[in-house]
Amino acid sequence: METRVAVISIIIEDYEKAEAVNQILHENGDFIIGRMGIPYREKNINIISVAVDAPMNVINNISGKIGKLSGVSAKTAYSNAK
């Protein structure tokens, strides 16, 4: 199955949703290359960057599930590398 490399950028404005975000990421842990989380206390938000190597449908599923959570936004940038 063909995979793509992508970065999913996540901003959590409702801290109570952090556990749900982590659960979604945990369920897809086999596809995660690495992740970096930054608590931005001054603005009371959390910023997470997740690098993945996965089939397009998996990447879209992860980003979609996270983006549907209220108080959370997610955007994905794809690499042209195959």
What are the main properties of this structure?
82 residues, alpha+beta, Alpha-Beta Plaits, four-stranded antiparallel β-sheet, 2 helices, 4 strands, 27% helix
Task: Summarize the structure in words.
With 82 residues, the chain is an alpha+beta fold. The chain has one domain (4-78): Alpha-Beta Plaits (2-Layer Sandwich). The protein has helices at 18-27, 56-67, and strands spanning 4-12, 32-40, 45-54, 72-78. The protein has a 4-stranded antiparallel sheet, with helices on one face. The model has no long low-confidence stretch (mean pLDDT 96).
Describe the structure in brief:
The chain is an alpha+beta fold and 82 residues long. The protein is built from 2 helices and 4 strands. The chain has a 4-stranded antiparallel sheet with strand order 2-3-1-4, with helices on one face.
Question: Mind sketching the topology for me?
Answer:
Elements: E1 4-12, H1 18-27, E2 32-40, E3 45-54, H2 56-67, E4 72-78
Q: What is the percentage of strand-forming residues?
A: 35-45%
Give me the CATH fold name. Alpha-Beta Plaits
Which whole number gives the mean pLDDT?
A: 96
Q: Distance between the terminal alpha carbons, to the nearest Å?
A: 11 Å
Sketch the topology as an H/E string, one letter per element.
EHEEHE
Identify the CATH homologous superfamily. ACT-like. Chain A, domain 2
CATH architecture: 2-Layer Sandwich
Largest sheet: 4 strands, antiparallel
The gross shape turns out to be elongated
Give the strand line-up of the largest sheet: 2-3-1-4
Radius of gyration: 12 Å
The structural class is alpha+beta
Q: Give the count of structural domains.
A: 1
Q: Which blocks of ≥5 consecutive residues have pLDDT under 50?
A: none
